C-alpha cells in the first residue's frame, strides 16, 4: 500500500511538471500572438504542434483520472468535463493540493 501512495504522489508531481511546461508554452504563444503579429503569422504552422501538445497532455490527464485516481465514477466524469471544457485552466483547477492528496491516500488505505 505504501508503494502505491508513493507512486501516486510521484505521478502527480510528474503531471504538475507537464502542466507547468504546457502553461509556459501557451503563455509564450499568447504573448507572441499579441505582441509580434508578423512573427506569429510566420510561425502559424507551429499552432498545430502546440494544439497537439495541448491535447496530448489533456489526454494524459484524463487517462490518469480514469485509471490511477481513487475516486468515484461521478467525480471522475466531472473532472473529465472540467479538463475538456476549460482546457489548461481546468487542468490547474483539477490538480490536487497536498491536503487533497493526503485525503485521497487515507481513503485508499
TrEMBL record:
Keywords on record: Membrane, Transmembrane, Transmembrane helix
TM spans (from-to): 15-34, 46-66, 78-95
Transmembrane keyword on record: yes
Name the record gives this protein: DUF3817 domain-containing protein
Organism listed in the record: Aequorivita soesokkakensis
Amino acid at each position: 500500500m505504501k508503494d502505491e501512495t508513493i507512486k501516486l504522489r510521484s505521478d502527480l508531481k510528474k503531471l504538475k511538471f507537464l502542466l507547468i511546461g504546457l502553461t509556459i508554452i501557451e503563455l509564450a504563444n499568447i504573448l507572441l500572438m499579441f505582441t509580434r503579429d508578423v512573427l506569429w503569422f510566420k510561425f502559424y504552422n507551429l499552432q498545430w504542434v502546440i494544439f497537439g501538445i495541448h491535447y496530448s497532455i489533456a489526454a494524459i490527464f484524463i487517462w490518469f483520472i480514469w485509471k490511477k485516481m481513487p475516486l468515484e465514477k461521478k467525480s471522475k466524469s466531472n473532472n473529465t468535463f472540467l479538463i475538456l471544457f476549460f482546457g489548461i485552466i481546468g487542468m490547474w483547477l483539477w490538480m490536487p493540493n497536498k491536503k487533497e492528496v493526503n485525503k485521497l491516500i487515507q481513503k485508499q488505505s
